[in-house]
From TrEMBL:
Name this polypeptide is given: Tetratricopeptide repeat protein
Keyword RNA-binding attached: no
Source organism: Mesoterricola sediminis
Signal peptide: 1-18
Keywords assigned by UniProt, alphabetized: Repeat, Signal, TPR repeat
Pfam families recorded: TPR_2 (PF07719)
């Protein structure tokens, strides 16, 4: 809270704090905006726990994990029991645990699960925590608390808060469990309510392109469906970078790299997060081999400018650049790109593999 002695200034500060609501931007994937607004709040009031929690979540999405964990811990120290703080710490802990790739990973994941459970207990309306908890329950083995039954319970809790998110989580869980027909019904329920929802479009196409769905449908049938559904959903996704990246990934997996490139390129001028689509162009060039030089130029621009969160960060851009350079036979530059990725995360297995391939 902003400290002022004058009553009117204090009342104004209280009103400003009440108006501060970072969940909307965080839920929409506007992490750079959420970080900037949290920074502005913290410049006025360094002890604003909600702003610290919001900045932590944004920093996790930007792959600045130690800073994210520090902000989350400080938020909870200032306001024990803050649901947003528990969610922030869970996300940071999970990210750091996945980076460690050792026994500490198990401890970190277990602690993150504890925080997610604490978040939904502290505020049962925190949809992002229910989503994260549901996916975690389905992904983790039973020894770490994983449970398909509990994952579905999270989807049921979301049904009462946001039916679209509830059905999206249910579809994701069913797809991860290998039940594509059930997943398709759940996603269909969500599309009937919100046919242009960007998170739904992304989650649906991601589930359709998964290994589990490939086993259920067969490789060729999966490719056919990916191509059909990406084409169908492209008009609804054009202005949202996250949704469009899902469409482009589906086209890429279906073997339509040139069409994926065209879709991403055309959307950049009016997309909500152009940096996400420039990174997508780099991925398309690296995976399909189309427009490699233009893909390199796009990645160079990504590395010069602020990159929206939820994309894997600058390390991913360096790695994709290295892949393209290797395929072009420019080994010294490819090695430098892989080393740049490893400078950001020394345990980046993708960059390590690329470096070995070059050597």
């Amino acid at each position: 809270m902003i400290r002022r002695t004058a009553f009117l200034l204090l009342a104004g500060a209280l009103g400003a704090q009440a108006a501060y609501s970072p969940r909307v931007d965080l839920d929409a994937g506007r992490y750079l905006k959420a970080q900037a607004e949290a920074d502005a709040v913290l410049a006025r009031d360094p002890n604003n726990a909600l702003a610290l929690a919001a900045r932590s979540q944004a920093l996790t999405a930007l792959v600045r994990l130690p800073e994210a964990l520090a902000d989350a811990n400080r938020a909870l120290a200032l306001q024990p029991g803050l649901a947003d703080g528990f969610l922030a710490r869970a996300l940071a802990r999970a990210g750091l645990a996945l980076q460690q790739k050792n026994l500490g990973t198990l401890r970190g994941v277990s602690a993150a699960m504890d925080d997610l459970r604490a978040a939904v207990k502290a505020d049962p309306t925190l949809a992002a925590a229910w989503m994260a908890l549901g996916v975690a329950y389905q992904q983790l083995p039973g020894i770490l608390g994983g449970s398909t039954r509990r994952a579905h319970a999270c989807a049921e809790a979301l049904d009462h808060l946001n039916p679209v998110k509830g059905a999206t989580l249910r579809g994701t869980v069913l797809a991860m469990d290998g039940d594509w027909s059930g997943a398709e019904r759940a996603f269909g329920t969500a599309f009937a309510i919100a046919p242009r929802d960007p998170d739904l479009i992304y989650a649906y196409l991601d589930a359709l392109g998964s290994r589990e769905t490939r086993k259920a449908l067969g490789e060729e049938a999966q490719k056919t469906r990916l191509s059909q559904e990406a084409t169908r959903l492209l008009p609804a996704a054009r202005s949202n970078a996250r949704a469009l990246s899902g469409v482009c990934d589906a086209l890429l997996d279906a073997g339509r790299g040139q069409e994926a490139w065209a879709a991403a390129s055309a959307a950049i001028p009016h997309a909500d997060a152009p940096s996400v689509l420039r990174l997508e162009l780099g991925k398309i060039a690296a995976r399909s081999g189309v427009n490699r030089e233009a893909g390199l130029a796009s990645l160079d621009q990504v590395l010069r400018e602020p990159l929206e969160g939820g994309t894997g960060g600058y390390g991913t851009a360096h790695w994709r650049k290295g892949q393209i350079l290797k395929d072009l036979g420019r080994k010294a530059e490819a090695r430098a790109a892989a080393q740049a990725a490893l400078a950001l995360d020394p345990k980046d297995s993708r960059a390590q593999k690329l470096l070995k391939e070059i050597s």
